[in-house]
Design brief:
The chain is mostly helical and about 80 residues long. The protein has 4 helices and no strands. The chain has one domain. The protein is globular, with a radius of gyration of 12 Å.
Length: about 80
């Protein structure tokens, strides 16, 4: 990730609100994508644009075991 999450709190909200627009996990929330799928993107290359940033961010979160940070945000958006 280039400059991390500093100054981009909306990025975390986007992880719990945005659905995967294509592929095997189409319509699944980015925060709910399996580790193996994100690892595959890491090896093959993340897409360009915002979707690539979201997938790369989620991959970093999973690599560092920080998924629990998204739980309160996910609960908040499900109300």
């Amino acid at each position: 990730m280039d400059k991390g999450l500093q100054g981009k709190p909306e990025l975390l909200l986007d992880l719990v609100k945005t659905k995967m627009p294509f592929g095997k996990y189409k319509d699944r929330l980015i925060c709910d994508l399996p580790d193996a799928y994100l690892e595959w993107f890491s090896r093959k290359g993340f897409p360009k644009g915002k979707m690539g940033v979201l997938l790369q961010t989620m991959h970093e979160i999973q690599l560092n075991g920080l998924q629990d940070l998204l739980i309160p945000l996910k609960k908040k958006t499900m109300r």
